[in-house]
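seq as requested:
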Amino acid sequence: MFQFHIQPDSEIPASKQLFNQIQFAIASRQYPPGYKLPSTRQLAMQTGLHRNTINKVYQHLEEKGLVESLVGSGIYVRALGHESSPQLRSPIVEQYPEANKIVQQSLNDLLNQGLSLSQARELFLAEVDWRWRCSARVLVTVPVDDIGVGELIVQELEQQLAIPVQLVPMEELGAVLEQTHSGTVVTTRYFIAEAEALGAPKSVRVISVDIHNYEKEIQLIKTLPKDSYIGIVSLSAGILVVVEIIIYSLRGDDVFVMTCQVTDNYKLNTMVRRAHTIMSDGASFPKVKAAIAAAREDIIRPPRLIKSENYIDTKSIAMLKRELGLD
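struct tokens:
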């Protein structure tokens, strides 16, 4: 079970500390869809926070579209459309009943011609796949104030999917969707509610990808010697904020945390001269490595450099491949 830690002497409000930790647990799938969150009483005992404060955190999570409250049962991680069973995705059948009849009749015709159900499925999927490849667009969307995380997602998706991926700021998504007739919008659970609100009126699929759980990195942070300097480098300002909160919740003032976006050369050069350990996302790694090499003559002991291989969970990428017909 994910353990929550609240630093009472932090400048960050306790409610924000708890919100960010729960949001991370959901986004990294440590709390998977359908998972029942701890009761307010359980969290109050674990964190020392008042139950009213925890209730407000849960309300905020529900407003963000990350959880849903079931009266008399509890708070559950919300299952998104592509994670639900086919029976729960029946509105399309209700919306287009005649189209559903055409599909059923076409399938019956193929079976009457001697094809097996598997062969009929293969024909349907081949046709859908061909049309999808011709017309589909994959759009990654995040708020403009954290466009760096979008750049990170785009880079990983283009490498893994081997197709062009377009980055669209959330603030411009509505206008972009007005100009397209097909496509898939991809984001993380952090921003899923906003993306769904913009995509639903345009009948565009919105899919969330889960972030990596960073289990190895978290374990390493727990074992760092006291008074260590740890540097965190990323394309994303938002990631840096969350990581700093997570590290503080794990170690408090036991370690010194330095963060910087990879584009900030001054802070990066300062970091490589002071930090004992530097963690970097994959996109930032080459520049961090080059900065350490350039400063080697000025430092007695170069920092240990650790590369986080993925921001997006590999299982989530596999799921996305299936959704796009690229598997």
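The radius of gyration is 23 Å.
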